[in-house]
Structure formats: structure tokens, C-alpha cells
Design goal:
By secondary structure, this protein is α/β, with parallel strands linked by helices. Helices cover 38% and strands 16% of the residues. The chain is globular.
Length: 420
Amino acid sequence: MKKVIIVSYYTKPSNFVGSERIQAWLDYLPKEKIYPILITRSWEENQENTSASKHNKDNIIEKNGVYEIHRVAVKAGIRDYLIKENKCILLRKMLSLLNILLNNLWFKQSEYFHFHRSIDNILMKEKDIQTVIISGSPFHSFAIGYHIKNKYSEINWYPDYRDQWNTHPFKSKSGIINGLLFQLERRNEKKWTSNAKAFITVSENWRDRIFEFIKKPGYVVKNGYDLDILAIQEQTVPRNKNKLVISYIGTIYPYQNYKLFLEVIGELILENSFNIELNFIGIDSFYKISPDIKKRTMKFSKCVNIIERIPKNELKAIYKKSDLLWLTSFGKMKGWYPVKLFEYASQGIPILLYPTDNDDMEEFIKTTSSGFVFIEKEELKKWLVSIFNSESSININLNKGNLAKYSRRFQTNELAKIIK
């Protein structure tokens, strides 16, 4: 089997979304006669905080016959302790800034040098390995590929952009420090990817944007869903007469227009006395959005449930009672296929996209027949009223032929074509 080294900071058994992409590669690349060697760190089961960490003193190697995992020894620092204990915010910020500067300016003192040393040890022993993939974020880990290529000229390495780095339209540039860091990281992104063979990312739009910046050929390997396509069953709406349960699962970003949807639901509850239940699960992973949602739903707070992030296997109970799974656009951000889009579709529960992105999410929903898309507030409101007033149910008829192309199995096959 062809051996491939994959570097990813976020991996299972943590509960970070990025870990699911990497786990799929471990599970499915062996079926394409590729043996993955994953370089990562240790994680607790369902860990969500990088600082509340399990730190191994020595490197750990796990082998299961079709792939292996090298968990690099990582030491907890003062910053990790302060974050874990929620102490000394100013000092934490200063240490975080120092950490960013080291990652950008002094590779041997960066937090990813240990990963580099682990790869170096493998390549010195296994001369037949020719491919390295480094998945970001953290994007500073791309420096590993740059230095590996400089030492081993025969290696082909690929940065995997799970998100955009310096081409991200909402990347902070305001203020002296952010402005200087932005310029520094733009320089480093170009430098570190300069000797890459090509790059990988999750959408065609992002591929084109990144290509324009780093001038390297790009390939698209989307995220996806894990379920067997034959096991997906369409759910009728509503499950219970005279009640509608709508759920949103995952992060909400400040630039998403969630406010319009809350206005529609508020009017239906307060003016029409409709029995609607709103569930928000894990929305505060990066930004504290829940206080604003609580404020905007104060008059119908009994209908709103806000739950912290939970392990993926515990979402089954949420899906089981949901009639609609809500998505909203990412403002001016184009080319975004959120992982929840694929997860929603794989549940067979109708997706409700409002307001639409007029882009990839809308196209996905239409080509897979996995839900409903709305532009205008009154159009959505009228549709929701019709669900309560109608005696018949609303059904979706999934286009499973098109949906199958978004399975993690199919997308990993696309990756195999690139690196074989």
C-alpha cells in the first residue's frame, strides 16, 4: 500500500468539527490502497477546549493494521493553565500574542516543531513515502510542509485548507497589532506554500480565491456525511400536529443574519399563537451569540432552548424530535459548505435555508432536494403558516444519486485520486 503522512492538530476523539474530516480519511483511504500515517496530539474523549488538555510526556504510536496514529508529546504551558482556570485575561492575551509571533517567526520554537521532528524521524526510516498532507487550521502548521520539502526534495506536500486563511473576507485587520499580524501571515502563507505541489480545500469558490493568492494548483475535497445513503429516510413535517420543532446545530457567526429568522418566528408565536419550539445547540463555540438570541427572544423565551455543545452521538435525540433543520447565509462569504449542511441532509429532515446565500448552500439543497429555500420574509412566514393550517404533511423526496456524491466515502475517493 502507498503510505501517506497526514498532519492534523484536531483529531478524534476530540469533539472538534475538523477532526471528522481527518477521521474519514483514516477510515476510507485504506479502501483505496493508501496507508495513512497521522501525526497529531493526544485528546480526551469529546474534548472541546485545546487547553483543557491531555498531555502525554512521550510520543505514542497507535496501529490498527490499516492506518497508524502518532500522538506527539505536547507540554502544557502557563497560557494553557490560565485558560483552563479562566485567570489573568490580560496575561493570557499577551502569551497568546507571543505564541503567534513564535509560530510566525521562529519555527524551532513554534508549537508545531514537535510535529516536524516526528515526520522527520519517519521519513528517515521509510524512504518510500512521497506524500505529506497538512490540514489547517491551525494554518501555522503549514510551516511544517515547507521545512520538510526543503530537507526532502522528493516529497510532494499538500496544504489542506479546511477554511480560508488570509483570503478570508472577515479576517481581522483593524488596529496596529492585527494589521501587522495580517501582513506577517500573508507573507508566511505565500512563503510556506511556495514549495507545495498543490493545495486542497473544501469548495470551488475557495479554491479559486486561494489560487489567486498563492498561485498553486488547487483541488476540491468537500466535507460530507458519514451515513450509508441507503439508510437515509425522509421525514414528514410536522411530526406532531399543531407543533413545529426547528433546530439549529453548530456555531453561529456574528456576520450570519440570524435576526431575520428570529423576527419571523417571534411574530408567528406572539401574533398567531403558533406552537413552535426553537433549539440552538453549540452555537457559542467561537462567538458568544446566545446572549443576543436570548435578548431577541425574551418575549417568547419559553419556546427557545439554548444548549451547549454536545457529543455528536447525543444529537440523535435532537434530530429525532426536529421537524426542520435551519440554516442561514454567511453574509458576504461565498463558497461555504458548512459541515452541518451535509449532516442535516443525511438525517432526511427538511433543511430550511433562510435567508438564502444565493450560492453553494442553495445549490446543494436544490440539487439534492433536501429542503426549502427562502429569500423574502413574508414568503417564509406564509409557508410556515400553511404547515399549521394544512391537514396534509410536507415531504421531501431526496435525490439520493446527487446526495451520494457528498458522502465522506465519495469525497475521500476524490482525495485518493489526487495523491495516488
